[in-house]
Design goal:
D-amino Acid Aminotransferase, Chain A, domain 1; nine-stranded antiparallel beta sheet; five-stranded parallel beta sheet; binds adenosine-5'-diphosphate; binds magnesium ion
Amino acid sequence: MKKILLLGSGELGKEFVISAKRLGCHVIACDSYEGAPAMQVADECSIFNMLDEEALRGAIAKYRPDLIVPEVEAIRTEVLIDVEKEGYVVIPSARAANLTMNRDRIRDVAAGLGVRTARFHYAESVEELAIHAKTIGFPVVIKPVMSSSGKGQSVAKSESDLQASWVHACIGMRGDRKKVIVEEFINFEFEITLLTIRQKNGVTLFCEPIGHVQERGDYQYSWQPQPMNPEVLRAAQGMAEKVTADLGGCGLFGVEFFVTKEEVIFSELSPRPHDTGMVTLISQNLSEFDLHARAILGLPIPSIECTEGASAVVLGAREGVNPTYTGVEEALSERGIDVRIFGKPTTRPYRRMAVTLASGPNALARARTAAAKISVQ
Ligand SMILES: Nc1ncnc2c1ncn2[C@@H]1O[C@H](COP(=O)(O)OP(=O)(O)O)[C@@H](O)[C@H]1O
Ligand SMILES: [Mg+2]
């Protein structure tokens, strides 16, 4: 039985724990607060700040896991680099966790490999931001280099928006380094997540592309398969293979691309299951969590089968503790609809609290209709 230390215990971690437990693993779920989703289904839990070097080293020394599996970006990844040298296995690799902790390093890696990205610069002051925004040309997208789920992100249409964008980024950033990435705005036709699986003993595998829509920089609904020109898809797969090979190790990666009329552009990457990939809980024979578990355990993946499916998020509307969910019965009364309630102990406006899943024809419309029936009190 493999012992897994899961760093981060959100909804993606919860589904990963279920997959890993089905394969006989023992999981210790870690996060900074009690009762986090993955803790509800894990064997043990440990509550500490994963950005705290000493606390993280302490947890690794205490549990001596066979596999360290990061579920979030906000981890003191330098510790993972050290313990990997001591012989611990970090998924997919300590380097991957370290390079994806902030936006800038992974973007530099992609650009260094000759992968097409939106044109970008970094800025550490509003003055620098103005210089680079003018070089790139308006509109530009501004994101803190340390943030996730769209926090601190904005679009500046002209120079007069930059001050507000800078302030918004500074409020939304994690850590104390005031640094933003300023990017060319890509007027894409659609965007996709390409789930990419690196195996210990086997070729790199790809799931069917997942289409998704984001609001406030956060995912709202996703569907699979997203129809695509085969040549463009092959180009995206080539880029995903190149970047994930550079990061190394085994596991599932969520690789995000923008697709325009002319080309496919690399956006960002998570070296672990992706939120838009929750659709695979209904659309694939093996979900992204099953695939991650198999890949990290070195188990075979003979085939990935996909049928039409979609997911839609249910968001919190206000602040509260021990939230209750209404409308679940109505949502589930439709054929081919399922729901995952995350069981977070607290709620707040726009916090992701559950997801609806739909299979079969018109899956996207049906998943969204089901999500609209559910409210969190
Ligand atoms: N350069 C860009 N041009 C157009 N839209 C963008 C750009 N960068 C980000 N976005 C939009 O914002 C969303 C979130 O940005 P992303 O970089 O993926 O941040 P996060 O790490 O918070 O997911 C993207 O999925 C996309 O919809
Ligand atoms: Mg993203």
